[in-house]
Amino acid sequence: MSDACEWVGYCIDEGIGDLQRAAGTLGALDELSMAHDADELRRMVRDSEVGALGVIVGMTSDGVSDVNLAAAIARDGRARVVALVRRGASGSLRSRARNAGIDLVLDPMGEECREAEPPSALPSSPLFADPRSLLGPLESRAPVIALCSGRGGAGKTTIVAGMACAAARWGMRVAAVDLDLSCGNLHSCFGVRPVVDPTSLVGEWGSEGRALFSASPGVSVTAPCGRPEMSELVMPQAASLVARAAEGADLVLVDTSTTFTDAVAQAAQMCDRLVLVSDGAPGSMAAIARMGGLAVRLGVARTRISRLENRANPHAKTDFSLLRAEVGLEAARVFRVFDGGAEVPELIAAGQVASLMGLTGPFSRSVSAVTAQLLLELGRLPDDKEARRLSEEQTTKRWPFSLGLRREAR
């Protein structure tokens, strides 16, 4: 394999022997160039032709772990193969590294180091992996619902927060995962400050569950990265984070960024329902058309995709002609969340989503109805009188206009 590409590597002085031993088993030692630091290694790969370089990462310092560095290079998608050298590599490390797109984990003192052989073709991009394999059968875990729009301002975050509160009122344990890792603000809807920076957990395999912290009774959330530029290091663990959340909750809701990052793609591939959110603004339908097409190309079954029209006019009927043919979702179920007036953004900005969902009005009731109906589809509707009643309502029907909000009696 050594004649197929050149090799570059990096490690600190203490690890040079292990790295050279691993490189020798790959037939790469004579063609190996060493970078002076982690940044230079990544620049070397980025400046090369796609597939021209193989990469070997050994012991590091520079404030970035060997696993993080290898995962970041794998995510860049330009290296032909990425190998991580680690003494005493555990099965858990190998599994997690594979999920992060790292092709080889080599123990310089182990048998696999002598037997390892890099792939003969370009490694698959993590974007097109199958993160759904991380989830067990739906019967043994929480359902996962992800909201996506392809543009900012469509209202995904507000709806995710409202759905979480609605489900929690029915006695469910809800995990709300914010995959806008750079600039997400899901936690702010609940009026709480970030408690855990997900960047601090990268490389601590099996620690993804610690990213969740309590935001409201029955609701746990994740926060974005404290430093937006570090989000690239967290993205490879997005699927593992969602899978771990599904093990300890009754419902997982995933908020996403405005674009289809690797993290969003992983969530779309593994979720049980992908809800495409539009709001009638210019470009909104074109955005979900692109997102819907991409989701289908990523292997998301059309039966798992729904559409949600946010800020809908409660007096207007759903315009089904807006479901463009190129999305391929003409038969997808359409939900509507109704415009609740100025009170909705005001209460959200004040971190009072729980109070908002405790009021009766077009927004809160329609969000609750959508939540109940999605849970009914997934066979997880809780045994709650309100949830059962709302699961039978039609969110496409005309909504009686209300000038004000009032407390809902349960």
Automatic annotation (TrEMBL):
Top-level taxon of origin: Bacteria
Alphabetical list of InterPro entries matching this protein: CobQ/CobB/MinD/ParA_Nub-bd_dom, P-loop_NTPase, ParA/MinD_ATPase
The UniProt record lists the keyword Nucleotide-binding: yes
Record keywords: ATP-binding, Nucleotide-binding
Domain CobQ/CobB/MinD/ParA nucleotide binding: 145-294
Entry annotated with the keyword Methyltransferase: no
Coiled-coil regions listed in the entry: none
Cited Pfam families: CbiA
Entry protein name: Division plane positioning ATPase MipZ
